[in-house]
Amino acid sequence: MPSGPPAEPPEELTSPLAYEGVWRFTAPALDASVPQARHAVRDLLAQQRVPVAAEIMDGLLLIVSELVTNAVRHAALLSPQIAVQLTLGANWLQIAIEDSHPYRPKALEADQGDVGGRGLWLVKSLTAEAGGKCGVELTANGGKAIWAELPFAPLATSPPRVP
After folding, report:
1. pTM of the model
2. CATH of the domain at 61
3. Over the stretch 53-66, which tens digit does the pLDDT of each residue have?
4. What is the DSSP letter of 102?
5. Deepest in the core among 50, 58, 60, 141, taking most CB within 10 A?
6. Domain count for the chain
């Protein structure tokens, strides 16, 4: 029986990939922050060379727009600043939008004639379609963080059935 310290796993199995990490920035709760947040997330992913599939990227950017818009529209009175946090794992990402407003929203399906009200429902749908998950967590300051976690690549779809 060999003695001595146990063998270490190869470095490629233990060290994080170059793009893994957490990035956080704040923005004023203003309409102008919606495209700024979307562009910042897109640019960060490009700079870090994160291998996100195009269809996941499209969904992610729409999710960022919806969540920042909701924070601007519904939380600005109690939260003049919002925070955007992007967490990158080996093959997944999580986007979280945090504000200081204590109200926890619910995803509602809006009627056809409604102009708004579909944002969180859309976030839930996009996240589920990509094979991810989403949720709302209370923060230490009494506010909330609404987050969506997505894989870098869409779920494999089964081939169409031939009749």
Report:
1. 0.81
2. 3.30.565.10
3. 999 999 999 999 99
4. -
5. 60
6. 1
